[in-house]
């Protein structure tokens, strides 16, 4: 961990030397401040309460290159399978942290789907208003991302506009023959009464270790509507640390779906800050992992004001010696009366070696609220399986059907038919069964 910390420190000096006049900009002042916070905090360890179930040491041990120097050509045929095949979308593709214009489709017609670097250079008002304004200051990995924030996606849907098609974000890591670390930075602003759907994926084409430390800031302004889906289904040499923070304003609606089917290691830090009244927030997640894989979900829904609604449902299926962590906190402040907040985490362990550490939390400082939380950890229902087998369904297919039905609830808010079809197929693949229907 110390070796990577030293490498990040020297890499930050290189970044500053390459900025020339930009080193005196307000943006870089925020970068410098964030990096100083990281140096003071260091990488989190199991001594930190928020990381007590997760050991980062194996993930941080490889000798990562921070700025890959080689240019690697990627053709559309190499990444076609990662996009929705039967849905027209805007596409933003980044290869080893570098924007690929010829693999992407952007727009500035009524709204902006372009790059973070473009925003920094052309929309200073946006940068001043939103950059580094949503992520918590006490998250060390988010601070590292802010320090190195140079490239990623910028999406701004302007007032009263509905994006005419979804946006797909694809971050690709290629094989350089050595370990690499990338740090994408995304900014999403959905203005008053605007609407958009976004799908995000990180995919490694490398057999070497890849660490992606990504951060996304989202601002849902008044009466806006946002559907944001993360598909995490990478190979077993890829690790992902994802820090996403959303600020919601009056009458806005944000639906976040996190679907984790792969990777060696995934840590999702997801924070909702409800800034004004009458917001709606939904958080759904499905985790299906097996041998040697770890997925750690940390969520916060911060009810600061009255009359807001949040609903959180995470489902997990763990096979082999897979490890899951769920730490979900709902905070209701003293003035946040009339809050409706619900949280549920249900898990199935398929073997004796699989494990899940789950900690749903409610902190309520108001008295006129409706709040509930709960979690379950169990195995398949033997009686239900016996009933299905007695009706002629083979045991393997019967188990898969029960697991599919268990996970399917967390697809309740997937509005896009093409994405729902893709997710159903991936769930079936993970359960090792052919399912040609949808519950």
Would you write up a description of this structure?
The protein has 439 residues and is of the alpha/beta class. It folds into two domains: 2-276, no CATH class; 381-439, no CATH class. The chain contains ten helices and 20 strands. A hairpin with a 2-residue loop joins strand 1 (90-95) and strand 2 (98-99). Helix 2 (26-41) packs antiparallel against helix 7 (140-147) and helix 8 packs across helix 9 (395-408).
Gross geometry: globular
Amino-to-carboxy terminus distance: 45 Å
Low-confidence stretches: none
Radius of gyration: 21 Å
Q: What count of helical segments does DSSP give?
A: 10
What proportion of the residues is helical, as a percent range?
10-25%
Number of strands: 20
Question: How would a textbook summarize the main sheet?
Answer: 10 strands, mixed
Mean pLDDT: 93
- Give the strand line-up of the largest sheet: 2-1-5-8-10-12-14-16-18-20
Give me the strand/helix succession.
HHHHEEEHHHEEEEEEEEEEEEEEEEEHHH
Count of the separate structural domains? 2
Report the structural category: alpha/beta
Beta fraction: 35-45%
């Amino acid at each position: 961990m110390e070796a990577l910390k030293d490498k990040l420190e020297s890499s930050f000096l290189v970044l500053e030397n390459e900025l020339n006049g930009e080193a005196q900009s307000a943006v870089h002042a925020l970068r410098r401040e964030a990096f100083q916070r990281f140096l003071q905090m260091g990488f989190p360890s199991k001594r930190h309460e928020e990381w007590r179930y997760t050991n980062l040491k194996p993930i941080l041990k490889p000798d990562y290159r921070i700025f890959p120097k080689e240019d690697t050509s990627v053709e559309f045929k190499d990444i076609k399978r990662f996009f929705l095949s039967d849905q027209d979308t805007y596409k933003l593709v980044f290869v080893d942290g570098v924007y690929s214009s010829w693999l992407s489709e952007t727009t500035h017609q009524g709204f902006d789907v372009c790059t973070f670097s473009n925003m920094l250079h052309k929309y200073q008002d946006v940068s001043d208003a939103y950059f580094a304004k949503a992520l918590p200051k006490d998250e060390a990995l988010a601070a590292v991302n802010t320090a190195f924030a140079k490239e990623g996606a910028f999406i701004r849907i302007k007032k009263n506009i509905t994006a005419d098609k979804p946006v797909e974000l694809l971050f690709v890591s290629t094989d350089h023959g050595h370990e690499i670390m990338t740090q994408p930075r995304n900014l999403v602003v959905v203005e008053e009464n605007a609407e958009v759907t976004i799908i995000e994926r990180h995919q490694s084409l490398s057999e070497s270790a890849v660490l992606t430390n990504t951060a996304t800031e989202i601002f849902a302004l008044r009466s806006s509507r946002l559907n944001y889906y993360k598909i995490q289904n990478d190979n077993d040499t890829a690790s992902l640390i994802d820090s996403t923070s959303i600020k919601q304003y009056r009458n806005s609606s944000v639906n976040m779906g996190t679907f984790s089917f792969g990777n060696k290691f995934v840590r999702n830090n997801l924070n909702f800050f409800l800034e004004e009244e009458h917001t709606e927030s939904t958080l759904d997640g499905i985790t299906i992992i097996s041998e040697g894989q770890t997925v750690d979900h940390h969520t916060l829904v911060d009810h600061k004001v009255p009359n807001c609604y949040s609903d959180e449902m995470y489902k997990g299926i763990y096979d082999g010696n897979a490890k899951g962590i769920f730490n979900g906190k709902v905070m209701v402040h003293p003035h946040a009366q009339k809050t409706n907040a619900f949280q549920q985490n249900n898990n199935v362990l398929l073997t004796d070696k699989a494990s899940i550490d789950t900690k749903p939390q409610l902190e309520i400082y108001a008295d006129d609220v409706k709040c509930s939380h709960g979690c379950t950890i169990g195995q398949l229902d033997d009686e239900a399986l016996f009933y299905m087998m007695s009706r002629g369904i083979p045991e393997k297919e019967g188990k898969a059907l029960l697991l599919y039905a268990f996970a399917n609830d967390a697809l309740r808010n997937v509005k896009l038919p093409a994405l729902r079809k893709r997710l159903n197929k991936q769930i079936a693949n993970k359960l090792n069964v052919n399912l040609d229907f949808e519950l």
